[in-house]
Amino acid sequence: QVQLVESGGGLVQPGGSLRLSCSDSGSVFRGANVGWYRQAPGNQRELVAAITTNEGTNYADTVKGRFTISRENGKNTIYLQMNSLKPEDTAVYYCNARWTALGYDYNIWGRGTQVTVSS
Fold this sequence. Notes:
Strand content: over 45%
Number of helices: 0
Number of strands: 11
C-alpha cells in the first residue's frame, strides 16, 4: 500500500523559511499529480500548491511568489519551499497524490506536518 510521509514542519519566526518534503513509498509520484494542502484550526483544508505530471504548477493566491513546489523523481519526493512565512501560514500541511491506473482513480493523503509561524 502506497504511503505518503511529510516532514520538515516546525516553528519558525515571521519572515523565515521552511522546506517541506513528501516522500512516497510506492514510487507513484512520477505518474501522479501531487499537491500540498493545509488546514488551520476552524478552517477547511485548502490547496496551497500543485504540480502535474507535465511539471505544470499552480499556487494559491495567498502564497504566490513565496512558495515553490518541485519534484525530485529520483528520490520519489515532492518539496514545498516556503519563504517569507507569515503567521497566517500556520497550519497542518498535507501532501496529496492522485493518479489513475488500470481504470482506477487513486487519491491518497499523508498524515500532515505542523507548520507554526510565530515570534
